[in-house]
Inverse folding.
């Protein structure tokens, strides 16, 4: 099995992190991999907020937790870095394009020896007045929708292998 296939098949969601900060060079590689994802008509609708500032990270966690049906105190599981993917809603393929950015970042983090997990509710977070205020404060203008939060850090757990469902492919020769 080649290295790419190995990365795909061994990546698992990490839900407990060490407090150790992630080096900026690694974050830059992960973000670059995300932004290298294909996009509809090459419109490149997604943008990424690379959040390592603890106060902003904690604010995003608080906003996300307010929409969390599982009522976790920290839906980011202690990860010190949150890579928020937002995408320009004027591009018809924005949700798909943002999803590809998320997947590339999840795979890149794993390939670099880091843990990562897709956390939902980015859309809800940035629909709230507080979320909109964050974007405004950062100078981000436009009609962006939150696609997902890619939490990243050094794992403090070993993810459990979960069985994959069968009979999900239909070959038509």
């Amino acid at each position: 099995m080649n290295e790419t296939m190995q990365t795909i098949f061994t990546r698992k969601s990490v839900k407990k992190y060490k407090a150790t900060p992630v080096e900026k060079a690694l974050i830059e590689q992960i973000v670059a991999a995300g932004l290298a994802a294909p996009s509809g008509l090459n419109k490149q609708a997604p943008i990424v907020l690379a959040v390592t500032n603890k106060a902003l990270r904690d604010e995003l966690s608080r906003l996300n937790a307010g929409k969390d049906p599982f009522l976790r105190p920290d839906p980011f599981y202690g990860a010190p870095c949150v890579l928020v993917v937002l995408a320009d809603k004027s591009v018809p393929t924005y949700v798909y394009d943002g999803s590809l950015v998320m997947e590339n970042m999840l795979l890149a983090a794993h390939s670099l020896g880091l843990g990562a997990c897709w956390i939902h509710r980015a859309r809800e977070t940035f629909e709230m007045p507080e979320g909109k205020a964050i974007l405004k404060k950062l100078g981000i203008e436009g009609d962006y929708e939150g696609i997902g939060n890619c939490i990243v850090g050094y794992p403090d757990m070993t993810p459990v292998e979960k069985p994959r469902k069968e009979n999900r492919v239909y070959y038509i020769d």
